Amino acid sequence: MEYKTTRRTDDQREGDFRGEVFRGVEAEFRMVPGVLPTQVGYTGGVTPNPSYEDVCSHTTGHAEAVEVELDPAKVSYEQLVELFWKMHNPTQLNRQGWEIGGQYRSAIFTHSDEQARIATDSRARAQEHFRKRIATQIEPAGTFYRAEENHQQYLEKRGRASCVIPAPATETSSTAREA
Hints:
- The chain has about 180 residues and is an alpha+beta fold.
- The protein has one domain: 2-Layer Sandwich (Peptide Methionine Sulfoxide Reductase, Chain A), CATH 3.30.1060.10.
- α3 packs across α4.
- The protein is built from 5 helices and 9 strands; from the N terminus they run ββαβαβαβββαββα.
- The strands form 2 sheets. Strands 1, 2, 3, 4, 7, 8 and 9 form a 7-stranded mixed beta sheet that branches. Strands 5-6 form a two-stranded antiparallel sheet.
């Protein structure tokens, strides 16, 4: 997940979230009150202006990500981070379900020390609900590159609401999850 302060107004901010195949995370965030426009793309790698094919070649270092514009009067960065743990399986390293590769890694890309602190604290709280170690990386944000138009709002264009791959519940708690 990447989150950055927008250059637009004090009332709106942006965030980039990386949790699974970007299409599912995008669809989930679009349903959150206070989340405004979203776009999918690539971040966290070294290749400038990568295409989907470039990212799938496993040579760019980029992760598929979702950039989210939000209204902080309705939803906070911390709330979105908390929701992020429920939108994907953060215990899988470099994969989500059948999708395998570094572009499918779980990551939070931060733009400030405060964001890094919030994300790190949230990960520690979320870890209490998983048997396996959370593999989500928390690292400084780089450039976000918008993906091709055919990937934008992919599920909505095809009449699907989501493709989230949650971790299964633990045996000890109906609210806890494991991988």
